[in-house]
Request: fold
Amino acid sequence: MPSDSSREVISAPAAAERGGGMRARILGAAREELAEAGPGALSVRSIARRLGVAAGGLYRYVEGRDDLLTALVVEAYEGIGAAAERAAARAGDGAAEAWVAAWLAVREHALERPHEFALVYGTPVIGYAAPARTIDAATRLITVLAQLAVDARPGGDPDLGGPSALATPPGTGLREDLDRVRDWSIAHLEGGERITDAAALGVLRGWTEGIGTIGFELHGHYVGSVEHGAAYLEAVARAQARSLGLPGA
Reply:
């Protein structure tokens, strides 16, 4: 007859599978809550009501509201980054086409999942600070953009994105920021040591403009002006590609 310890070993995988399934249900309910009520209304109690279970039982699977939000934040960033990666990889010849395709894919993803986009690029959730474990997912999109800029000059041409130096030398604060971006590029990009101040600033500007353009459309700020969001974003992205000096721009 099996001992108690052997029964525990045998049942452990099944218990883990049940636990994983319950956490998946919790996250599914959290996505619904996010879409219907927004991140401010998200809580373990609200998820328990949606699932029809006692709130106390959910703490076996999630640590609390912040744990739920973090899971949703990571999922949102990963989805946006994956959309950009796929589109850039499928694009035709030229870094400029990949840059434009990446941005159009991010927009399409955001339109399909507006509440996820707003969670990570909208109004911060009061009382929540994203932990360090969200950083890898959060930088997935900027990694695509920065790698395109670096790959545009595979031979090591220092003129990435125009002049290698900024027209106006950066002050102490901006100098520190650009050095930080360069250090990140060296650590995370192939050939990242080739990035220049102008290229770093251009990628950051492009990232900011692209996210802002999509956010403006999602939140209705273009009503009465821009009615063709995809065409407008493409024009913005192509202007960014030209400013960066990407081939094919």
